[in-house]
Structure formats: structure tokens, C-alpha cells
Amino acid sequence: MLNFSAIPAELHAPAQRYWDQFEAAVQSQNLPHPRDLLPSSVAADEFFRQLTRAFVASEFIAKTVAQRPPYLIELVQSGSLFEAQTDAHLEAFAAAVNACNTDAELDKCLRQQRQMAMIRIIWRDLNRVADMREVTAELSRFADKSILLAAEFHYRALEKMYGTPIGRESNLAQPFMVLGMGKLGAGELNVSSDIDLIFTFPEGGETNHASRAISNQEFFIKLGQKLIKSLDTVTADGFVFRVDMRLRPHGQSGALAMSFVGMEDYYQTQGREWERYAMIKARTVAMAGGEGQIAARKLLGKMLQPFTYRQYIDFSAIESLREMKGLIARQVQRKGMNLDVKLGEGGIREVEFVVQVFQLIRGGRDARLRKRKVPVLLPFLEQENYLPPGAGSALLEAYIFLRNTEHAIQGYQDKQTQSLPVDPIGQLRLAWVMGFENWDSFFETLSRYRHCVNAEFKAVIAAPDEEVSVDQKAVSFWLGLWEGSLQGEDAIHALEARDIEGAAALIKNLADLRESRTVLSMQASGRTRLDAFIPRLLLMLLQEAQRGKLPLTIAEAFARVIPLIEAIARRSAYLVLLVENPTAIQQLITLCSASPWIADQLAQYPALLDELLTPESLYAPPDKDLLRDELRRDVLRLNWDDLEGHMEALRYFRSAHALRVSASEVTGALPLMKVSDYLTWIAEVVLEHVLNLGWEHMVERHGRPRRSDGSVDTAPDFVIVGYGKLGGIELGHGSDLDLVFIHNADANLSTDGERAIDNITFYTRLGQRIIHVLNTYTPSGKLYEVDMRLRPSGNSGLLVSSLAAFEKYQANEAWTWEHQALVRARVVAGSAALGEEFEQVRQRILTRERDLDKLRADVSDMRRKMREQLGSESKAKNSAVNAAKTPVLFNLKQDAGGIVDIEFMVQYAALAWASKAPGIIRYTDNIRILGSLEEAGLLDAQSVAHLIAAYKAYRSTGHRLALQRQEAVLEGDNHFLTERAQVTALWQQLIDHN
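-> C-alpha cells emitted (994 positions)
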């Protein structure tokens, strides 16, 4: 009956022997033959082809079926041998277990069900009817169900003996929870895997039995012991799953079951790096008994997440994984396990390490990295450029081949081994199962895949000095200088011999840092990391200076980095980040030497060091849509009610992109206009999110505002209007935001929630919430400084105005300077429909006929007052400098011929001529308004060109000074003489010509 065609002759005999035993047993026990039970969809020839392949490739299947023919008969008769696993299969499994009345019956039933499940799954795997992902998923679901059914059975039995475990705080019945770790947790169980489990329960307390009450912990330890016995013990019927409990808190010496409080305390105070690695794959695979299971599952996940995933970029994970891999490599070498497809070089574990290093480093920031399955994550890592192009797909192909090889090895005898066979028959069998004619061709392909895996693994996890050629002799010299073993004249001579200027200053800086309280109080591990970083920093400073890429002396550049070093000394994961990434050190030097402002930002927010890892994104800022996508991804892990989490995410987002734009600016990668665009887009994207955040909070508390037609606001009928630099798309580094809030709600109606409030109060509180999110100081600082004084009636006016009230104020009460401000006003976030209505109001106000003499007088008067209060002459007077002398300072913004003169002329022209040329107020930025004035024939081309050139030159200089931590004030009377003269002449022509 067996079909041995295309099967090597050396493999025929054992399969035929087991088949003969099976047929003899069928005949002697008067059982139906499988060929007579085949479903109509399965041809006899195909069945025997699959049967022969299964018997040849798996001694486990052949031997088990020969000894227990009913297993195969039932699988064929039910048709499940030829089907993917379904809920119906698992329900039938549950029905069989629930019919058991004793522990012995349960154990026997579980083992019989397991044997049939393994026959079916291995059969389908070896015949390639199911692919690797389906095989591992089915094994995992079967394991989940086995654990759940056994736990529920024993929970009920113990409940009868001791009562129900009741939580001390909640007074609720407590569920028994099983965390699956490793491949079970990931849903990737292999065909003969053990299962790594951790038992837990929400609360302490005791059971509610009248006379035999025990503590909850005792109850759940008893339950855990019974569960392990039911799954792990080998009987005449075999076993279900080998159970490994060593990953629980405190390992073998720890309690078998622990409450959430105990778990949290352990991981917060004693959790080790390898336990973080293990916890990545943790999944609640079963919950038995009790109440509030869904809430308990969520609470457990929330409790474990901060331990597993750090909020900062954590490169210390690489050190830990490197050490773990080193231990494994030594074990492999010691035990001669080089042929192990899991632990050997280029094996399954190295693929897992590649994935998990990115999860540990960045999973706290990027929730998408928290998936558990390797085949899901590898394409994602390549797509998001964590892995180079082609690496993710190559690793996935290798991983599938390695896992199929592992299954072929284990499926032969249902043994937990990953070692390649060394006997010729075993090698031939494995090669044949994997689709190869002989062992050599199989081994050549396997070796190619393992080489690919090992190369990618080394690229990701190799020590930094392995990746980059580092002059160890030079590092030793700088280490001696840093540690102080090279001092005094010897040190100065050694530095001067290397053409280093300011040798004495550098030595003093090193000594001061080395002897500072911050460094002296460092823990040993942190000090080791600092001692690795400082010499590499100094060496790279020298190399950059020798290449002519250091605008400062080495001593000056090092001094700029010192505040950052002091800031990260006690958070040494950042030191690891720098040591592990020489590119990051190079970018650190480039940016800090170019701008003390950037150096300050990095010292204040060390998390921004992550941005230095990818120069391609550091110097290539995204557009607004990509910014939106990035922020959406950053907050993906956060619930709307997690205000603190959102505030921190927003602050990092804003700071990271501020760093990117400043880096692009100081290196010349981004021109002035693009810098302002980018800074403005950042603010707009932040405001959009803050508005949504405030809206979700208010709706949760009070419901949605009602409308007069009986409907409710499904989105905010509210806009944020940007004025000043935000409105004019001209934000600079550190600019505050001039905002006005406008709503369009019905003032006589209220919200539809249980705690209803009137619509006006709703939108007023929404405005307050927005300001709170933007203005509040957190550990990461303030998001933006907000100025609301441009709203109707200024500080004495309502925080939020209706559109009608806004228009009424602008038409009847606003001062000229408020209409000047309106020229630059535009909606930056909120309702598109209300935004259009606002723009119509703006157009109506700005296109009104005006008394030009009065307008010129108002503009001139306001400008004079500002110059007197804020210009350099006023500062000179306050400093008792003789005002009659020619000014030696030029305030780029406030002095005559400066930025504000240009802005006021633009605003004057818009207000004066918009009534006859409405197109000039279509835009809100000065450059495009000037262009519109030229197009309309209201200003000549030469005047417009002069104003635009001066405006760009002033702003570019202002930006550069800001990055140097300097005020926008120039010393001397020789700056921008031509530009100032041209701007002043046009001012006289337009405004002060009387």
C-alpha cells in the first residue's frame, strides 16, 4: 500500500515495518481500514502518498499509529487530518476534557488529544500541506487550549476543597493567570517544544471556605502544581507538554505563583536584562476562574510594559544581548553544538536576536515593534529602515528554512532537539524531507542561509570596535590623558606634538570633569562606560580637526560637550548609545561645535541623542504629512486619557524636530525659508494633536456640544488661529505662539453627557486644556510659550470667542494695530468649515475702505513707540550712553530699517490697498504679500526686491545668532548699511512722507 516512488531505498524498511504492524493491529482488533474512511475530497492515491511520506519522515507518527491504530482511524474518519485547525476542533477537545471527572481521566484525555494533535500537525507539516506559520500557530493554539482546560479543571476542584480565592482589596474572585513566554508567548511553538510559563494572580487575600480557608497564594501554588503535573508528567500515554518554570521571578527558588504586587516589585527592583529579553514575548495564554479577567489582563500588561520597554532609546540592550550571545557561543563550543540549527552560528536564535535588539532599544518609543512574531517583524524592520534594503526579506527566507529544518529534525522522533544528524541515514532522511537529493546539496544551502544570518547578526550586534577600524594605540593615549596617568608638562608636550591648540585648557577641562562630584559619584558600570566614551570622543575630535572640519579648537569643542556628559553620567545608557555608534559621536561633534544652542538642547534633553544615529533623516526633514504620520506613530501606544504620556511624547517630537531643523540649518542643508516652513509645520502638527487631545478629554467628561438642529458636534466646531510668526509661516528657534481661539457653537445649548455643561463653558475649558498642555512644565520642559493677548479685548477678553463676536469686535472696537495683526492671521488647526468662515471674516475686515492719512499716522505712531521701547537707542539710553553719538548697535528686529519696519510697511500696504486689490491679502507671510503687491502694480519691482532681500538677510542672520545663543543685535555701525538705507527710504516714501 505504501508508495515509495521518489523515496530513497535506504529509507523504505522502517516505514514498511511500522505499516505492517498497523495493518496487523487493524485486522486483529477488527477495526475499519483508513482507506475505506477517506472523505470524498481525498483520493486514495494522494492519501497513501502522504501516509508514506509521514511514515518515512517521522518515526513518531509511524510508531504511535502502529501501537494505537484508532488515532489514525479517527483522524481520517473525522476528516481533521486533511483540514487546517478550526474552532470546532478545539471545541471538541474542550468537550472531551470537560467530560472528565478525575485527575487520572483528565491526564489520560489530555495526552490522547495531544498525540492525535501532534500526528495531524506533523503529518501536514511534512507533507507541506501547511506552511511554517500555520504549523507554529496551530501548535500554539493547541497549547493555549490545553493549559486553559487543565487550569479550569483544577480551579474547580480546588474551589470545592478550599473555597474561592477572594481579593483583599477588590473583594472579587481572583483569576489564575498563565503567562506564556518564549515561542509559546509569540505564538510560534515548534513541533516538540517545551513551554515556558509564569503563574500569577491579581491580589492577595484568602479563600472563602468556612473551615478550610487558605491564602490566595497557597491556592494558586496548589493549582500551579496540579497544572504542571497534568501537562508535564510522563505516563503510559506519554506527556502533553514539558513545562519550564525557570523564567518566573527568582527562578527555581521563587514562589510558583505570585500576585501582581509581588511581580511588579520584583521587576522594578530586581529584574535583569535577560528577563526583559524574555518578557518581549510574554503573552497571557490562559485565565481560569475568578472575575474581571479582561481588566486583570490589561492591568498585567500595563504593569509589565515599563520594565520591558524603556521610554528612552536603550542601547544598553545591545551589551546585554551581546553578553548573552557570548555565553551561548561558549556553551555551543564547549558542548560541540556547532551543528545546532537553533543555537549554533547563523541559527534561529541569531535571527531572533536581530529582531529583539530593535524591540528592546526602540520598542518603548515605537509601539509597532512590540509584536511578538519574528516573520511579522522582519519585513517591518526593513520597511522602516532599521535593517538595510533586502536584509529583512533575506533573514525571513533564512528563518523559514531554519524553522522547517528544526521541525523536520524534531518531528522524526518527537524529541526536543535542534541538532543536525551525524549518521548517514539520518542525514539522507533530513535532506529528502527538505526537498534535496542528497545531504551535500542540503548542507550547502543550509550553510548559505546560516552565513547570511550570521552576517546580519554581526552587523547589528557586533562590538563597535569590530565595526569600525579604531586605532587602539590612539585610544589608549587619550584614555591615559582622561584618567590622569598622563599629566603636567608631559601631557602638554604630548598634545602639542599632535598640533593641538589650547593644550592646557583641554587638560584642565578633563581634570575638572574627572574630579567633579557628578563623575566621582558614578556607579562602577557607568564609570566604565564613561571611560570608554571619553577617549573615543577626544580621538574623533582630533580626527575632525585634522580633516579641517572643526571650527573650534579641540578644547573649545570638548568644553561644549561637557554639560551633556554631566547630564548623562547617571543615565549611562546614553553613553552606551554613543560608544556603540561612532556616527553619533561624529554628529555630536559637528553640531555642538557649530552651535552652542544645539549643545544646550542635547544637554537638556539627552533623549535627543537618538536623532544623531541616522544622519540621513537628521539632515532631511520630512514634510507636513510625514510629520503628522510620525506623531501619530509616536502616540500610537497611548490612550487618550494618558495626558502625561501625550505631553512627554509631544515634547520629544517637538524637540527632536527642532534639533533636525537646526542641524540642517547650521550645515547648510536647509535654506532660511524652508527652516521657517519646517518649524511652522512642527507647531501646526502639534496644535492639531493637542486640540484632538483636549477634545477627547472634554467629550469623555461632558459629552458632545449640541446643535440647534438636534445633532451634536462629532468633531470640534473650533479653530486655533495663528498670529505673528506662526500665522506668517516665519517661526524661528524658540519662537512663542500667538494664538486666538474661536468657536461656532450655539450659546443657548449644552452638551449631551451625564455631566452636561453649556456649550460656551465646554469650548472655554477646551481652550484652557490646550493652553495647559502647551504651557505646562514637565521633566522635558515646556512645549511652547503661548501668548493669547491678541484675542478680542486682550487679556481682559474671553479666552474663546464665537466667530460672530470676533467679527463684531474687529469691525467696531479693534485698534489699527489689531488689524495689522490680522493681516498675518490664519487658521492652523481645527474645523475646516469654520476655518473658511474665519477667512471670510478676515477678508471682510481687511478689505474695508480706510482713511489713509489716519492709517499712516496710526502705523507710524505705533512703530515709533516700539522703537523707543525696544530699539538699541533705548538700551543705550538706559546704559547711560551718550545718545547723540552714532549708535554702535543695530537691533535687527527693532531698529530703523530693520525687520519690523518691513513688516509694518507690508501691513500698511495690505490695509491701505486691499479694498481695491483683495488678492494682496490672500497670503499671510510677508514674502508672498510683497510679491502680490508687485503683481497688483501697487509696489514697483525694485522696491519689492530690495525689501525681500533685506528681510531674508535679516532673518537669516537672526537665525544664525540664535543658534549661537546670541541676541539679534549687531555691534558696530557697518552692518547692512545698504539694506537699512533702502528700507528707510521706502518707509519715508510710504508712511512718513509728510
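The chain has a mean pLDDT of 89.
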